[in-house]
């Protein structure tokens, strides 16, 4: 009788656990949280695309005003190299401006030149690949480090995915 009682208690525990799991599953399924998240995703996508369109119009005007895509790309490449323009102007000077600290070592100078050459070569390759395109939405999104798949832009068809 004791053995039968223990088996029944084990069965009852197992059934209660299954019932609790099923109840939780039903609550999750009935929850509108997924629908809310889907709605927020749609809202964010539409808003980000609208913002990208507005920014594109302004950037396109600016790029065209600078002389076109190649000129803009060259300016961007020069800007990337110019992060330390302030350092170049103060070369040979220390914090108090008297210039008594040692200059940059030869190895560092060689490394900087190598990095600049690599950046120029990369920019030339990109220019060759994109020379025919002109300034496009894809180029703008990439220059702003916005992943195309996140915002829903199709690079092959040059339009938004729906």
Proportion of residues in β-strands: under 5%
Helical residues, percent: over 70%
The low-confidence runs, each spanning 5 or more residues with pLDDT under 50, are 85-89
Biggest sheet: strands side by side, in what order?
A: 1-2
**Secondary-structure-derived class:** mainly alpha
Tell me the distance between the termini.
67 Å
Number of strands: 2
Number of helices: 7
What's the order of the H and E elements? HHHHHHHEE
Write the topology of this structure.
Layout: H1 2-30, H2 33-65, H3 69-81, H4 85-89, H5 106-130, H6 137-143, H7 148-151, E1 153-154, E2 159-160
Antiparallel strand pairs: 1-2
How does this structure look, described?
By secondary structure, the protein is mostly helical. Helices cover 72% and strands 2% of the residues. It is built from 7 helices and 2 strands; from the N terminus they run αααααααββ. Strands 1-2 form a two-stranded antiparallel ribbon. α3 runs antiparallel to α5. The longest helix is centred in the N-terminal third of the chain and has 33 residues. The radius of gyration is 30 Å and the shape is elongated. It starts with a helix and ends with a strand. 6% of the residues are buried. About 3% of the residues have low confidence.
